[in-house]
Amino acid sequence: LERLQYRMGRRLLHFALVASLSVVLASKETHGSARLDENESDSDTRRFDVAAALRRVATVHEWLLDPYAKSPPTIWGVRSRRDLVGEASEHLISTDKHQHGGSSKKEVNASHVRKGKKTVAAVVKAPRAFDFRSKNDLTRQVSGQVYVEVMFMEFLRGLYGVPDLFGAWAERGTKGSEERGRVFYAVEACGNRIGDGWGDHKRPAVMGSTFDALARSAPLELARSLVRCFQTFSVLGGMVMTDFTPEQFTLKDGDIYLI
Questions:
Q1: How many C-beta atoms surround the C-beta of residue 158 within 10 A?
Q2: 198-219 core/surface letters (b: 16 or more CB in 10 A; e: else)
Q3: 2: which residues sit within 8 A by CB, 6+ positions away?
Q4: Cβ distance 203 to 180 under 8 Å?
Q5: Which residues on neighbouring strands pair with residue 114, listed in sequence order?
Q6: What's the whole-model pTM score?
Q7: Count of Cβ atoms closer than 10 Å to residue 36 Cβ
Q8: I need a labelling partner for 34 at 20 to 30 A (CA). Which of 97, 135, 184, 253 fits?
Q9: Nearest Cα to 178, choosing from 214, 216, 128?
């Protein structure tokens, strides 16, 4: 556990250093040619309070180290299944499969949450198991992926192209189970994927009809949305995407989101 905390601490420190550098770079690039809409991009930069973001992710980081021993952070509105409006499994949206063993890695289900006085659509995600200390390689791998995804949404909260993270909670496994339990996290429902496929010869990228229609009717507006989304996670967030496919992006009311 101490080694795990050390590695996570180093990751969080790296996160902080990259974030600080990214904000500096973003401020210096205000007049860069890549900014298709200067006012919108500058607004994103000004709204990004890196100090507040780092305080939030530090809290989330501590909880994710062992979510079964601590209560979820109070900064979230959703901290248990009871905070959902309706069940978390209204209908199964998708189930990611491990490419070798075929075992389920993560379920994605539709639900709703209360946001102020409104009830909004949400997506509840849950890996098959969450435990950094698991003896199962896949469990540790998926736990790391969930850690990065939750930290990404919390760090860049409120910025363009980032789904709103409503919160998360942990549920222990049944008695006799090989795994300690699961972590559930509720995020904003951000429309449909812009396309399918991985862009290779086995699964060529095919753009969706909605994205295609918008690209034809409003190409500049769509280009601005794409660039603005990339600026959020790459310039402000200092992150690099290693699985760049259409399935990683969604389109909702003309806005592009990274999911």
A1: 11
A2: eeeeeeeeeebebbeebeeeee
A3: none
A4: no
A5: 119
A6: 0.77
A7: 16
A8: 253
A9: 128
